[in-house]
Amino acid sequence: MRYLTFALTKGRLANKTLEMLEMLGITCEEMKDKSSRKLIFVNEELKLKFFLAKGPDVPTYVEYGAADIGVVGKDTIVEEGRKVHEVLDLGFGKCRMCVCGQEEARELLRHHELIRVATKYPNIAKDYFYNKKHQTVEIIKMNGSIELAPIVGLSEVIVDIVETGSTLKENGLVVLEEVCPLSARMIVNPVSMRMENDRIKELIVNLRKLLQEG
């Protein structure tokens, strides 16, 4: 039997995923050792391998078959646009992708003005403004704290992830429009889906049951 390989998003998503898998009796003791310098963790008995990766890299590993299964935020799946099957909404890591800005920017959105949009997610922003709202905008790709952009006048609005909204509030910004709801999703490599159909299906069915009970 070949190994089934999981690519997990470092941090909270990986921890929550491992908690869920543990409820199904799938454990990886090696991963609990925080001092470990290992990059790949193995459960020999169940023929499973796990590794941690940065969010945007997870769909890449899965598309190219370096991982059979990945767990990553919906925002990353949409932004990266990789050829993967999204098979399950894991229900944690819930937040929203929103258009935010100062209250006065609401009018600019309403009148479809040509505005500048700062974001870490240019593909999501582009799709939302061009295809859903049919509004022409200038998209500015950024990497740091996006909230700064409307405050210093770099952009009229931002497209960003909103969890509680407290950072926005502290900076005098509000949610102007919701783009889409987000949460952690399980993705599968299309070839793995065919070749390891029974093993992957069983995992999905068991996780779905767990989510329904929870």
From TrEMBL:
Its EC number(s): 2.4.2.17
MF annotations from Gene Ontology: ATP binding; ATP phosphoribosyltransferase activity
Gene3D superfamilies: Periplasmic binding protein-like II
Main location: cytoplasm
One GO CC annotation: cytoplasm
Enzyme class: transferase
Domain named ATP phosphoribosyltransferase catalytic: residues: 56-208
InterPro entries: ATP_PRibTrfase_cat, ATP_PRibTrfase_CS, ATP_PRibTrfase_HisG, ATP_PRibTrfase_HisG_short
One matching Pfam family: HisG
UniProt pathway: Amino-acid biosynthesis; L-histidine biosynthesis; L-histidine from 5-phospho-alpha-D-ribose 1-diphosphate: step 1/9
CDD domains: PBP2_HisGs
Domain of life the protein comes from: Bacteria
Coiled coil: none
Keywords, alphabetical: Amino-acid biosynthesis, ATP-binding, Cytoplasm, Glycosyltransferase, Histidine biosynthesis, Nucleotide-binding, Transferase
Locations listed in the record: Cytoplasm
Reaction catalysed by this enzyme: 1-(5-phospho-beta-D-ribosyl)-ATP + diphosphate = 5-phospho-alpha-D-ribose 1-diphosphate + ATP
Family matches, as HAMAP family: HisG_Short
Subunit record text: Heteromultimer composed of HisG and HisZ subunits.
Protein role: Catalyzes the condensation of ATP and 5-phosphoribose 1-diphosphate to form N'-(5'-phosphoribosyl)-ATP (PR-ATP). Has a crucial role in the pathway because the rate of histidine biosynthesis seems to be controlled primarily by regulation of HisG enzymatic activity.
PANTHER family: ATP PHOSPHORIBOSYLTRANSFERASE (PTHR21403:SF8), ATP PHOSPHORIBOSYLTRANSFERASE ATP-PRTASE (PTHR21403)
Protein name: ATP phosphoribosyltransferase
Annotated source species: Hungatella hathewayi
